[in-house]
Amino acid sequence: AAELESKSFTNGKDDKPKVLELYEATFEERFGEVTELRYCGLGWDDTEAVLLAEVLASGAAPRLKTLYLDGNSIGDAGYRALAAALCNAPSLQNLHVDIEHDELVAVCSSRSIQLR
């Protein structure tokens, strides 16, 4: 939404809300179909992990089976957020991370998610 504010439209006052609505609907539709996400080696830290956790917690990826997060610099706060969000990723079967965070291990174990 913030980036959309910097864009120009024919009638910005009327067009921006509609464009934002279309972007959101398209994201929800496409993200809802995804079965695998690869966010390996992107230099992510807790900030990005928390943002991803918010998306997962919203239930936006109900078909997600495999999530790759290895090769990043995610710390305690990021892993805590991800652990809390996994209850809203009902199809998740495989999670690839660099460390075994206690909360994440517990959630994955209780849900039979393979932690790699």
Number of helices: 4
Strand-residue proportion: 5-15%
Radius of gyration: 16 Å
Highest-level CATH class = Alpha Beta
CATH superfamily: Ribonuclease Inhibitor
Extract low-pLDDT stretches.
none
Q: Can you tell me the number of structural domains?
A: 1
Average pLDDT number: 89
The order of strands across the largest sheet is 1-2-3-4
What is the strand tally?
Answer: 4
The portion of residues assigned to helices is 40-55%
Features:
Leucine-rich repeat, LRR (right-handed beta-alpha superhelix); LRR_dom_sf; 9% strand; 4 helices; four-stranded parallel beta sheet; alpha/beta; 116 residues
Fold topology:
Elements: H1 12-31, E1 36-38, H2 46-57, E2 66-68, H3 76-85, E3 94-96, H4 102-111, E4 114-115
Helix pairs in contact: 2-3, 3-4
Task: Describe the structure in brief.
With 116 residues, this protein is of the alpha/beta class. The protein contains 4 helices and 4 strands, in the order H-E-H-E-H-E-H-E. Helices cover 45% and strands 9% of the residues.
Structure overview:
This protein has four helices and four strands. With 116 residues, the protein is an alpha/beta fold. It has one domain: Ribonuclease Inhibitor (Leucine-rich repeat, LRR (right-handed beta-alpha superhelix)), CATH 3.80.10. The chain has a four-stranded parallel beta sheet with strand order 1-2-3-4, covered by helices on one side. α3 packs parallel to α4 (102-111). The radius of gyration is 16 Å and the shape is elongated. The mean pLDDT is 89. InterPro entries: LRR_dom_sf.
